[in-house]
Amino acid sequence: MVTASPVQSAEFDAPLLAVEDLEGRDLPEWWELVEGRVIELSPTGAWSGLVSVRFYQYLFEAASTSGRGHAFPADIGFILFADRRTMRSPDAAFVLRERLPGVGPDLRLFVPIPPDIAVEVLSPSDRLGDALAKVAMYLQAGVRLVWLADPDRRTVTVFTPDAPPVTLGTEAILDGGDVLPDLRVPVADIFAP
């Protein structure tokens, strides 16, 4: 799920809102905060939603087996920058345990740091340019590994801060790199009907 246009409401026209400024406000059902502006999201499509769940399952299994960290499903908000004016919700994510040791009832709102792995899955209504802008924002925030999945083409493009993107087809194996080295998934399995 990527983003739609900013919510057009006088309530949200104030520049540079922070996460704390949104408490108690009437917000859209699905939203993100991008550079101080509330962005309404559209629901994901069924097929892309299923692909998102598969990514979460693979991350969860690898995180549970290795004990290296925490996997998060779609719609969990991550604060990307210290100014708290950008909160994004990847379709699946992973955070190393040493960066986020206390996951429990005290972590009631958003994850206060960017993830180590962020997954975005294109929906039919998503624009590639918007998805690539979101990938760039993740990398700028320090996300070490971003996967952009295209269910229609059955590809996963891997982005890292220090290398050109690599697009993997169904014959390839997707791995968690140095973030989650135990994770190895055939791309064909991600897009299996």
Description of the molecule:
- This is Putative restriction endonuclease domain-containing protein.
- It comes from uncultured Thermomicrobiales bacterium.
- Pfam families: Uma2.
- Residues 29-187 form the Putative restriction endonuclease domain.
- The chain has 193 residues and is an alpha+beta fold.
- The protein has a single domain, classed as tt1808, chain A.
- It is built from three helices and twelve strands.
- The longest helix is centred in the first third of the chain and has 21 residues, at 46-66.
- The chain is globular.
- The two termini are 20 Å apart.
List keywords for this structure.
six-stranded mixed beta sheet; alpha+beta; 193 residues; two-stranded antiparallel sheet; disordered N terminus; tt1808, chain A
